[in-house]
From TrEMBL, chain A:
It comes from Streptomyces canus. Coiled coil: none annotated. Pfam families: PaaA_PaaC. One of its GO terms (biological process) is phenylacetate catabolic process. GO terms for cellular component: cytosol. It comes from the Bacteria. InterPro entries: Aromatic_CoA_ox/epox, Ferritin-like, Ferritin-like_SF, PaaA_PaaC, PaaC. This is Phenylacetic acid degradation protein. PANTHER family: 1,2-PHENYLACETYL-COA EPOXIDASE, SUBUNIT C, PHENYLACETIC ACID DEGRADATION PROTEIN PAA.
Automatic annotation (TrEMBL), chain B:
It comes from Streptomyces canus. It comes from the Bacteria. Residues 17-79 form the MIP18 family-like domain. This is Phenylacetate-CoA oxygenase subunit PaaJ. Residues 124-173 form the PaaD zinc beta ribbon domain. The lineage of its organism: Bacteria, Bacillati, Actinomycetota, Actinomycetes, Kitasatosporales.
Amino acid sequence: MTAPETTAAPTPSPAPTAAALALGDDALVLSHRLGEWAGHAPVLEEEVALANIALDLLGQARLLLSMAGDEDDLAYLREERAFRNLQLVEQENGDFAHTIVRQLYFSTYQHLLYAELAAGAGPFAPLAAKAVKEVAYHRDHAEQWALRLGDGTAESHERTRRASEALWRFTGEMFQPVEGVDVDWKGMEAAWLASVGEVLRRATLTVPEGPRTGAWAAGAGRQGLHTESFGRMLAEMQHLHRSHPGASW
Amino acid sequence: MVTLTPLETELFALAGSVPDPELPVLTLHELGVLRAVHVRDADSVEVELTPTYTGCPAIEAMSLDIERVLQEHGVREVTVRTVLAPAWSTDDITAEGRRKLREFGIAPPRLAAAAGPVAVRLGPTRTLDPAAEAVLCPHCGSADTELLSRFSSTACKALRRCLDCREPFDHFKEL
């Protein structure tokens, strides 16, 4: 893939590479995870919805990674430890409830982050102003499904409860400040807790009580430390490109 | 306000007449994605295009189509630049574009709803928001329609169903 030359007017200052990588890797990795649902989603409409959300995220990833270097080299030729994404987005899809809760946690965060970036004048403002409107639909999709599953059958409720607790420990990392991203992290965290808490309560679930980060995991993804399944995901994502260097169609 | 030369006006109209690769009933002008045409010198032209969605794969086909049309018109060198700001909105679709969408069986986006999705109350199977302007069925014009899925054949559309004529239809979502 080759992105068309992208610029924004007025020309902003160059994006800090570390920040572009962190935000770009979040989008790329979650896009790949959602793409894994293709052919497996519970109903056709969700197959299409998840693929469309993945496509939005891939578009963000291409623009962000292009700010940091060559998008293909960055996506396909980096080793696991060079990725700067949150551990939350690399978590396996699990069942549909697990994917929806991951979407709820992440899209609420991303919506708050992009809204702040869009309101500023930094290098990410043009992209954020565009993407925040798309992410609003991702968040809405996740919220409506969280309500339906949580306040659904005993089975769907139990699966959603399990997912909300299993993924909780990956949510603290989202608010570790990223160098070059000028936002109010503390304020964003409070807004995230209020927003997600409200959805969980309306979904008849309780806000998990466990820690939002493990001592072993604090800031880990942003420092290149990833969980076990990430290496397998990368192997699948990168093997075609690495097996056929320079191939095109 | 930038004044266009007669040549730029002509090339802008040519580039704007290119059909959208995804929705060929619309031209790029009607979709509102063509931002500017600058004539650099005798046979070198720069075109500014903005994507509808960040990940819209059609942008590359649009760029190639614009290059082809302008080159056929004798422009030797065409550069298509993608610009992000100001972000495209469905309000940029022209009135003629909306009419064509409806005729094509796609409910056009409602105007001035750029704030994104509206929070709605959820019933067992239907999503109804009494406060929002109704999405009219493009087939029979009924206002009694329901949301089936927030994402349809492409990210920019939602799938709905008319409760009067029972036909499913795509709705170009407000962005």
